[in-house]
Amino acid sequence: MRIVSENRCFGGTQGVHVHASEATGTEMTFGLFRPEYPTGAVLWYLSGLTCTHENAMTKAGLQGWAAETGMTVVFPDTSPRGADLPDDDAFDMGQGASFYVDATEEPWARNFRMERYITADLPETVFAAFDLDETRQAITGHSMGGHGALTLAMKHPGRYRSVSAFSPICNPSESDWGVPQLTAYTGDPKAHDATILMAERGLSAPLLIDTGTDDQFRDKLGTAAFAQAVGTRHAEAVIRQQRGYDHSYFFVSTFAADHVAFHAEHLA
Ligand SMILES: N[C@@H](CCC(=O)N[C@@H](CS)C(=O)NCC(=O)O)C(=O)O
């Protein structure tokens, strides 16, 4: 791992790091906020379509709240990148749009193994480099990253003590933010659908979801289907629809404090 940059931030350090990933076969960049007084608790923040590690790091406003609770926050990239890697002209496919699955289909299968990256390669690097507590992890994300947070938590039960999401894609097997991409990557959108995973497996960790009532992509998110699955499963969840908010980082930053406080409570 090598350091790209370090900036003092809320008494702690906002770093950007590069490391080699076996899962993606590339170098990967990630941001990591280290508070001045770290407790060992870690929050993984998965970003949405078109994002890099940088969007949430610079716009979500998580660091100040994380500093108050001693939480380390990791901001992974949304896919492997490179001129020699497969990509697509659409903004919601290929580089910047991994949907956090392990691709099995060509041409994606070699590099687009983001489930493995987020749950194996990146934690291995982060836990080796920083003094953190593997038993105190939580996960959150925005939009496609919310889909990542929900599905990875349900596919890896027990790993994350709490789960949250901002305007997550909740029912991708019924959405054009999901069907084309998950079909191309894996051939099986239903296997990576949070609503189906909730109905079939459930989630044992506490869950907080915020979505804006004026989200311009709300028809693609499937929030109602997911809420129904939560109800059927009697899962522990708070799902809030926040009046007037859209899909942007103005929305994410408004509720960032609530999400950090929610995770801090469960990581204590
Ligand atoms: N560019 C797309 C929208 C993509 C988009 O809204 N991406 C969200 C995540 S799904 C995001 O976080 N964008 C980056 C940002 O706001 O900094 C469009 O115009 O339809």
From TrEMBL:
Cellular component annotations (GO), alphabetically ordered: cytosol
SUPFAM superfamilies: alpha/beta-Hydrolases
InterPro entries, per the entry: AB_hydrolase_fold (IPR029058), Esterase-like (IPR000801), S-formylglutathione_hydrol (IPR014186)
Segments crossing the lipid bilayer: none
Main EC class the enzyme belongs to: hydrolase
EC annotation from Swiss-Prot or TrEMBL: 3.1.2.12
Entry's Gene Ontology molecular function annotations: carboxylic ester hydrolase activity; S-formylglutathione hydrolase activity
Reaction(s) catalysed (UniProt annotation): S-formylglutathione + H2O = formate + glutathione + H(+)
Function according to Swiss-Prot or TrEMBL: Serine hydrolase involved in the detoxification of formaldehyde.
Stated family: Belongs to the esterase D family.
PANTHER family listed in its UniProt record: S-FORMYLGLUTATHIONE HYDROLASE
Name of the protein in question: S-formylglutathione hydrolase
Gene: fghA
